[in-house]
Amino acid sequence: MPVEPIPPDAPCVADSYIDQYETLAYGRFAVVQILALVVGLDVEADGFVKLTADRLAAETDAMEVALKKAGALDVVTYKPAEGKPDVVGNAKSVLRRLVAYAESRENGEAIVADILRHENMSTVLRRRPVKLAAALDQAFKAIEKHEASLPEFAKWAHAVAAARDALGALNEGVRKARVDRREATPETEAARVKWLRRYAATKSIVEGILKPLGKVAMMPQIFDDLAEVHRAEGVSDEPAKADAPPGSPG
User: What span, in angstroms and rounded, lies between the C-alpha atoms of 207 and 135?
Assistant: First the structure.
């Protein structure tokens, strides 16, 4: 019997961008976090909470079985292939070194604030690559604004634009690959739809436990697709590489 797709207006639906492979990372992360963070908050509900985690774990295992039967568990990620440039690592390195350079200039604090939009550097660097590309675009606009205060503006503009464009191309490539693999087989897509339903139901149940306790803010700690910065293995951004000295864009 075919599985009906999830209506786009269904309540508490998991993000539709979660592809078949990412279900494994998000599902297992949520199970661990539910058992670690939610069990014990409402002792009378603990049995139901554990059952909810067990059911998500079983659905995630079923998803893995479906993928194995399809003949592949290759994951399209941002990790560079052997011999290929580390586009994400380079983008982060350029941004970090740009900030270090800007800090060394007169009125550096204001320049850096514009580059990072008054956000924390570590938070910006840990964002998913799509948002990192937007951060590089913001950095480019900021140094254009402060061109008069940046003697090495030309080479930094080139470095930032190159890193932004390379990351944009990589983002598009990964997006297309993920769209393509979602449609790999009817069996894996049916399994993914079932998993998304279970994941959405798990969110609703956990939110129902947390809400009376005033702890709904914990949801992104439990369901990593809700988090601004990912922690689930397989969907997290790679850490930034060591930086070169300030003043050098590449």
Answer: 32
